[in-house]
Amino acid sequence: EDLGRMVLQRRLSTIASKADAPFISADVGSQDLLHSAHVFQIWANSETDKWQAALTTIDQEQRRI
Length: 65
What we know:
Layout: H1 2-16, E1 25-33, E2 37-45, H2 51-64
Antiparallel strand pairs: 1-2
Organism: Sinorhizobium medicae
Protein name: Host range restriction peptidase
């Protein structure tokens, strides 16, 4: 899981660094919730008018892992 998280983080950071990126920044993490569930999370910041493109791009990248 850690390797996949690091790969996804690097991909999203690379995308965010481009001038035409659909999001400004993104982060990836995981945690255990009360010893009952393990959660994998992706956060992103985008301009208001680019949220759909940001969501589509992040979905595509996480499916590549």
